[in-house]
Amino acid sequence: MRIAVLGGSAVWTVSLVQALRALPIELVLHGRNERRLKLVARHARHWLADDVDIATDIGRAVEGADMVVVQIRYGGLEARAEAEQRAWALGCPADETLGPAALHMAMAAAPQLRDLGRVLAERCPKAWVLNMVNPLGISTALLSEAHERVLGICELPHTTADKAAVEIGSFPWRVEGLNHRSFLCVEPAVLDRIGETLVGLPGAWARELGAIPTKYHRVVRESSPPGASRASALIDLRDRIVSELAHSPGRIPPSLGQRVTDWYTDGLVPVIRALMRGSGTRSVNLACDDGLVRERLVRFTPRGFEALPGCLPPAARAWVETFEAHERAVLAAVRRQGPLENALALDPVVSRSPLRQLPPLRASTRR
What we know:
The chain is of the alpha/beta class. It has helices at residues 13-20, 34-48, 58-62, 76-89, 99-123, 136-144, 156-168, 188-191, 203-209, 217-221, 230-247, 262-277, 314-334, 340-345, and strands at residues 2-6, 26-30, 52-55, 67-70, 128-131, 150-152, 174-178, 181-185, 197-198, 201-202, 212-213, 281-287, 293-301, 304-308. The strands form four sheets. It has a six-stranded parallel β-sheet with strand order 3-2-1-4-5-6, sandwiched between helices. Helix 1 (13-20) runs parallel beside helix 2 (34-48), helix 4 (76-89) packs antiparallel against helix 5 and helix 4 runs antiparallel to helix 11.
């Protein structure tokens, strides 16, 4: 199985290498930062023998790939830092997946994502494209314009269910909604087992919704003051990991332990295994006929997968309808088919803060 990782010069890729060790794969790492790319590749070769190649050209990287992992951070962590400032200017949380920061990231990356989709369709039309670029729903929609086999990957439904099971016992579930704005569909008896809190949220929210929300429900439901810059902290951590890789290429960098990378262990790698085996049930984000990307539990088969329907009660469904209206406005804005103001006005995160005009958004050419 040949897997190409676009954005493979990111130091967090070291965690992906460790998670892939048990699988029979060939790995191609693509990246723009040649120094970091070579450091990550040296580490990967230590653990995966000689089945590791590198490329700075995307077309060459994906040629012949069975799967393509897209984790390019357009503009780098520096772009995330700028997006944080845009969100704080509106009095909103600086989250790269929701709110004004996510809108900034989407506007900057959209032209390049659409170009990437066309390259993938031309060079590897039969490959599975496993997308991890935030904001995930928008990036998956843009890639899906040209390529027919794009899955958005997020670990959150699974980690939410796992953490909830520790508190109230195991339970069957399905998922419905948009990425980071989805809900676990459960039987009413499960809701009766919930106490004062569940996965760090008020237990009353789940009972009111008739479904279990993920941790990001707090972002859209409650206003919060600006906090410390997450991007700045990650830049510092990235630079320490680079130094550790340069000093000991085959060693897992000690500083890597300061960031949980469960998007690999609980999100990406289980989907890779399911695709390789043609079996298994996982949550993915799928482009639908109306252009929106929705989070669903799917059952993998030797021919692909089948989506399992959700069953949200009215209270949770009302939230999803709000999220979908906003997502349509964001898609229109990034495609230059609708005004940016609509995307801001329909954003439930912005609606809880004083609305001020964002500075002009411009596409970034950095990766």
